[in-house]
Amino acid sequence: MRSIAGTASPRLLNPRWAVINPTKHSDSGFNFQLSQPSGQLALFVQAIWSASVQQSESGSIAKWLYSDAGSGIIFNLVGGLSIAGVPLPEGVIMLPVSKQAANISLPSGARLAGIRFHPAIGYGVTGQHYDKPTLLPPSEDHQFNLYNTFAELRQQLRPQSHLETIHRWAEQHLGKSQMIPDALDRAMQQIEQQEMVGRVAELSTLSLRQIERLFQHRLDMTPKHYQRILRIRKAIHYLQQHSKANLAEVAQQFGFSDQAHMTREFRAIASTTPTKISPSSLRPQPSELQGEADSNQRTDLLADQRRSKIG
What is the pLDDT of residues 192-235, one digit of tens each? Predict the structure, then answer.
């Protein structure tokens, strides 16, 4: 993948969809390509992606979208689709904050592309939360020229062109005004480091109620639910790397009260169970399994940005 002006070549990651390998994937007519921006844009964006379904008579295909506490935008270029049972036509689709796994159904011949924001970034971009996947009316596209980007994407057939077009859009429209407030960012980092929510308030100049309001405002969820999502994400990642691990020990390691509690949480957040996790059945994805390296990279970038006042 060629480098895009002013940045290093985007680093390829596994996508948000189930059963996808790194860089490119083609399985049963489903084609997917994804990149993760580098540099300052990585503060805002988990991934930029392009997907298509080959034209056939076999009907639609279904994939799982795993919870990541983030949100995003889909440019639905060709064909209707449905997410969590919500039918969506062609156009620009605004996604809600992901609080639990959801199923997406793609018809034969579908073409789509999109961008996935880090947790708490989506609100800074759109200024609102959506309670379900929502088609953005062109008349409401005042600030970000999303339908101009949609029209450009629709003329392009190469996934690489989709990635570059959305990358340019992101560089033009994402900046300091979309940054996570410092107090919220510190609280999120402490939760990522497995601090209990009550302890986060003790380490902060804010009260627990103020922290809860910040989370509701920017993430549309409580700190506790954010912690649940991260706990499931880390447990899944561990089970993928240690397929023979003792589940009772895994439950204890990641802060579940017992194995039964872990199983209930898996069903509630990821729509699966720990026994169904394996390297071959569910590969890591940035939305579900961001990984410690990516989390640390984002933390370092935020620190660098504050020191140099980039934006």
Answer: 887 788 888 888 888 999 999 999 999 999 999 999 999 998 99
Q: Which CATH superfamily is domain 24-177 in?
A: Jelly Rolls (2.60.120.10)
Distance of CA 187 to the CA centre of its chain: 19
Using alpha carbons, list the distances in angstroms from residue 168 to 34, 47, 91, 119.
15, 13, 19, 21
CA distance 7 to 287: 23
**What are the pLDDT digits (tens) for 37-82?**
988 899 999 999 999 999 886 778 888 888 899 999 999 999 999 9
- Which residue spans of the chain are classified as CATH 2.60.120.10? 24-177
Q: State residue 1's pLDDT score.
A: 32
Quote the pLDDT of residue 199: 85
Rounded to whole angstroms, how far apart are CA atoms 55 and 57?
7
For domain 182-277, which CATH number applies: 2.40.128.20, 1.10.10.60, 3.30.70.1520, 2.60.120.280? 1.10.10.60
Sign of the dihedral through C-alpha 95, 13, 40, 160: negative
Handedness of CA 178, 180, 181, 182 (dihedral sign): negative
Helices (H), 56-194: 121-126, 146-154, 159-173, 182-192
